[in-house]
Each structure stands twice: as C-alpha cells, then as structure tokens.
Amino acid sequence: MTQRLVIAVDGPAAAGKGTLARSLAEALGLPYLDTGLLYRATGRRMIDAGHDPATAPAEEFAAGVGMEDLRRTDLRVPEVDRAASLVAAQPAVRRMLVDVQRRFAGAHGAVLDGRDIGTVIFPDAQVKLYITASARTRAERRWEQMATDLNAPDRAAQIAQVEREIAARDAADSARATAPLRPAEDAVHIETDHLDAAAVLAEALRIVALRTR
Ligand code: CDP
Ligand code: CDP
Fold first, then answer.
1. Is the keyword Cytoplasm in the record (predicted)?
2. Cα–ligand 1 centroid distance for 141 (angstroms)
3. 60/125 same-domain check
4. 91 shares a domain with 2
5. Residue in 38, 39, 120 to alter for ligand 2 test, most ligand atoms within 8 A of Cβ
6. Domain tally for the chain?
7. 196, pLDDT greater than 70
8. Where residue 16 sits, what CATH number does that domain have?
C-alpha cells in the first residue's frame, strides 16, 4: 500500500494558497479542504445570530458548522473576513475544529490550506508549503478577484483599503497565542510576487516529487 500523502499549504491572506491547493489536489488526485471556510462559516453563523465575534464565545457556532455551511456564497465578504479571524483566535473554537480537519485526510491523504496546517493540524505532513507574496501584490490579487469594475476610477484607493484589511488580519493571525500564522520549520517557502498560478503549481509539484521519492 502506498503511504498516505498529506500536503499542508499555509501562508498569509490572499497569497494564492487556495488556488495552489485546489490545483495540486486535482493534479495528484487527492481531496482538497479549504480550512479557512470552517472559520468563515463559524463567523457567518455568529453574525447571523446577532452575536459580536469580537466579544462573544464562538465555540457553539463552530460546533454547528456543517458541510452545507461551507458551500454558502456569503462567506467571502469583508465582515466575514474579520469575523473569521476573530473567532479563529479563540482556543475553544480551534480545538473544536481539529478533528474534522484530521479526519478529512482519511486513510489516503489530502491537500489542506490554511494557517496552521503544517504546524498544528498535520505536524507530520510529508509536504509543507508556505506561500507568500508582498502585501501589495496580495491586495491587488484579492481586489481583482472581488472587484465589480476593474476600471473603477478609485481603483488605487480600493486596493489600498484591501491592503490595510489584509495587513490587519495577518497581524492578528500572527499575534494570537493559539496556532498563530507562522511557517513550520520544515516548510518550503514559495515567494510568488513574480510567479503566476501555473508557475507556482509547477514549483509545488517539483517539491512534492522531491519529498515523496
Ligand atoms: O487562498 P488565498 O487567500 O491564499 O488566495 P487565492 O484566493 O487562492 O488567490 C488569490 C488570487 O490570486 C486568485 O485570484 C488567484 O488567481 C491569484 N493568483 C494566485 O493565486 N497565484 C499567483 N501566483 C498569482 C495570482
Ligand atoms: O483566503 P484568505 O487567506 O483571505 O482567508 P482564509 O484562508 O479563508 O481564512 C480566513 C481566516 O480564518 C484567517 O484570517 C484566519 O484567521 C482563519 N484561519 C485560521 O486561523 N486557520 C486556518 N487553518 C485557516 C483560516
């Protein structure tokens, strides 16, 4: 039997983790889990119930997250970006979500992207990738993903606003006591400022081949 292959993809906001993890999973025939959706769905459920994710305990909302919550189309909006990061700092929420992530890899393996996959969820993952780019590049990418008008006259101001928001979220994610955003010691870093998604995938596949031979 071949050994199960777990690939951890971590890094700051909008670095291209999801794009890479999804295409890696497809190329390797593995299931893919976007773990950020677990925290986003928790934050979403709290907001919908009228609770403030900055102050109220979120554990019961994390416990109630199901597969149908992860398919919601209202998880990638600024208020949920902030709510996800706030609930993700609560240790009880993180504890609640460990098992579902570990079980996802099952007997055959998986690709998971997030912040703590290589450090906490799968410290023994065979392949750990840490995806980065400058805050400006990441803000431009996220803005292009979300923009309704790519020729908006206030384009520069909108990108600057996205950059402030992702910088604030990265700072909070890095500073929290439980499972902070940081590269695992044995992670391979891929700096993507000057790489397109196809080039990042090619580099990741090269690393996977080296680590699994
Ligand atoms: O999952 P994460 O927030 O890290 O980023 P993403 O949603 O996968 O990627 C953000 C945007 O950057 C997407 O529109 C990608 O197409 C784009 N992008 C990328 O993922 N990788 C590159 N090397 C260049 C652009
Ligand atoms: O796509 P983007 O990088 O903007 O965010 P995401 O991966 O969907 O994660 C949203 C938030 O959830 C992050 O800012 C983190 O606070 C939290 N998160 C986490 O703490 N641990 C993970 N494994 C994944 C996400």
1. yes
2. 6
3. no
4. no
5. 39
6. 2
7. yes
8. 3.40.50.300
